[in-house]
Amino acid sequence: MTILLNDILRIPVTELDNTKIRFNQINKNNSFDPVTLFKEKNKRLYEGQFWNYSKRKSFKTNQLAIGFIKIDDDKWLLFDVSKITKDLNVYEGVGYEYEKIPKYEKYFGRLIIRYKNNYQQMIRNARTVIDDCEIFEIIDDTFDDDNFPGYENVDLSWHDLKRVIGKKDWKTALENQKGVYLITDVNTGRRYVGAAYGEKMLLGRLTSYVKTGHGGNKDLKKLQFNYIKNNFRYSILEIYKSTVDDKIIINREHYWMRILMTTNKKYGYNNK
């Protein structure tokens, strides 16, 4: 039996014409990524939900505004249901004041619908689409697709690293593995090769970069923390069991420094 969105929300039929649904998805230049913003609890997600473009208003005062974010091909996650309380008459910016509807908050980040959007318009009158929104799942906990992907698939920006480093499966995977890691400056192409064999091994080293940006590395200390946050990516080159001799890890670090020429200041941040 198909369960529809309004079987859960129970918006009165008489109110559907006064209700709009905004389907938020990543834009063409990746400057607005609603899934990442949701996981980071970033207020820019709500700025996007209540944004007006050019001379076209998204909502009206007293309307109900429902917000979804795209998490898969035809799957959308509910993150907000609010009432528009004031039209700020702003274009190319946040156009409204609003109040969340408390009775729906238990579904935020948990209710997933299946909906195939065949229109360019991402803000739709609820009456025209709500019967096409099928409940796919109501998950037990708040949506989070940051599962550890495997050592060979680690490729994180600083902001990604900050978000995942404290999560249980990431901590379990990293705290008992020695290894060699790579930091890449996406702005200049320069790289830094490091070895992790001290306290908490890979977890300890990566956590230090989250906290300080430079992790105690001499040449990285010369960079502004904000620059590092916006331009550095982190990956893992090799992993070893915790019982492997530290000298082996150091030798492998030097091997990768040589291969990637990271002691050459043109290409890297390592010291000779």
Descriptive overview:
There is one protein chain. With 272 residues, this protein is of the alpha+beta class. The chain has 2 domains: 5-138, no CATH class; 151-260, 3-Layer(aba) Sandwich (GIY-YIG endonuclease), CATH 3.40.1440.10. Helix content is 25%, strand content 28%. It contains 9 helices and 13 strands. The strands form 3 sheets. Strands 1, 3, 4, 6, 7, 8 and 9 form a 7-stranded mixed sheet that branches. It has a 4-stranded antiparallel sheet with strand order 10-13-11-12. A two-stranded antiparallel sheet has the order 2-5. Strand 11 and strand 12 (191-196) form a beta hairpin. Helix 5 (158-164) packs across helix 7 and helix 6 (168-174) crosses helix 7 (201-212).
Task: Summarize the entry for a quick read.
The chain has nine helices and 13 strands.
- Write down the Rg: 23 Å
Total individual domains: 2
The helix-strand sequence is HEHHEEEEEEEHEEHHEEHHEH
Number of β-strand runs: 13
What share of the residues does DSSP label as strand, in percent? 25-35%
What profile does the largest beta sheet have?
7 strands, mixed
Percent helix: 25-40%
For the terminal residues, how far apart are their CA atoms? 67 Å
